Amino acid sequence: MTPMTFSIYAAFMISMTGLTFHRTHLLSALICLEGMMLSIFVSLAMWCLQAESMLFTLSPMALLTLSACGAGTGLAILVATTRTHGSDSMQNMNLLQC
């Protein structure tokens, strides 16, 4: 395993571990999700460079576009829950209430 692939795997696993264990605030969960998407983007871009194929060059940009859309949606949900509940703490939110 090369150092580059090890660092990409390590970044993904650290982000997944952070998402698993630090779920007290919505903002920390969103940051962990963005770290996971960034490591997937870097690995996909490196794979496209190693494959040297023009067929795969669009996929990292599509992933980055979908990641940006997801981040925008996540931040909109964060702002909405902060306005209605007063904080982004996950313990204050009851998912069964409307």
TrEMBL record:
Main location: mitochondrion
UniProt subcellular location: Mitochondrion inner membrane; Mitochondrion membrane
GO cellular component: mitochondrial inner membrane; NADH dehydrogenase complex; respiratory chain complex; transmembrane transporter complex
The reaction(s) this protein catalyses: a ubiquinone + NADH + 5 H(+)(in) = a ubiquinol + NAD(+) + 4 H(+)(out)
Record membrane topology: Multi-pass membrane protein
Gene Ontology biological process: ATP synthesis coupled electron transport
GO molecular function: NADH dehydrogenase (ubiquinone) activity; oxidoreductase activity, acting on NAD(P)H
InterPro entries associated with the record: NADH_UbQ_OxRdtase_chain4L/K, NUOK/Mnh_C1-like
Keywords: Electron transport, Membrane, Mitochondrion, Mitochondrion inner membrane, NAD, Respiratory chain, Translocase, Transmembrane, Transmembrane helix, Transport, Ubiquinone
Ranges annotated as spanning the membrane: 6-22, 29-49, 61-80
Domain of life: Eukaryota
Function statement: Core subunit of the mitochondrial membrane respiratory chain NADH dehydrogenase (Complex I) which catalyzes electron transfer from NADH through the respiratory chain, using ubiquinone as an electron acceptor. Part of the enzyme membrane arm which is embedded in the lipid bilayer and involved in proton translocation.
Family: Belongs to the complex I subunit 4L family.
Name of this chain's protein: NADH-ubiquinone oxidoreductase chain 4L
Organism: Grandisonia sechellensis
Upper classification of the organism: Eukaryota, Metazoa, Chordata, Craniata, Vertebrata
